[in-house]
Write a structure and sequence with these properties.
Layout lengths: L4 E6 L2 E5 L8 E17 L4 E18 L4 E9 L8 H21 L5 H15 L4
Antiparallel strand pairs: 1-3, 2-3, 3-4, 4-5
Length: 130
């Protein structure tokens, strides 16, 4: 985040498992995330642990039928503590905009040939070159 600092969201260790073999239309998953954290660091080097390392356990049940499809997700955590200092909150709130700006800069430019092809197709269809 320019002029403020940086934010780091970490899932920690991800474990994904199925309790038993399953078909694609009946999937049961267990997802364990250990050491999940959210941290912010100011430009002055101050580190803010907004979410302390916490284990998260999820169960997901997917049932896909021709007439009805359902997903049931349950999230379990022992204790989740959110701690926000004013500087950390500023960094956290500015993060989505900063990510969007970075992604916009990384989009590849449109190929030059496409614009020319559109002009030629208009000339070919109307027989005029404005």
């Amino acid at each position: 985040v320019p002029e403020l600092g940086s934010a780091l969201f970490s899932l920690g260790l991800l474990t994904l498992a199925t309790p038993k073999p399953c078909k694609y239309d009946e999937i049961d998953l267990t997802i364990d995330l250990t050491r999940t954290t959210l941290q912010a660091t100011s430009l002055q080097g101050e580190c803010f642990n907004m979410i302390e390392p916490v284990p998260i356990h999820l169960t997901l049940e997917y049932r896909g039928f021709e007439d009805d499809t359902g997903i049931d997700i349950k999230v379990y955590t022992k204790q989740l503590t959110l701690s926000l200092a004013p500087q950390a909150l500023q960094i956290l709130l500015a993060t989505p905009t900063s990510v969007a700006c970075v992604m916009a800069e990384m989009e590849p430019p449109a190929p030059a040939g496409k614009a020319q092809a559109a002009v030629f197709s208009d000339v070919a269809s109307t027989g005029k070159n404005d």
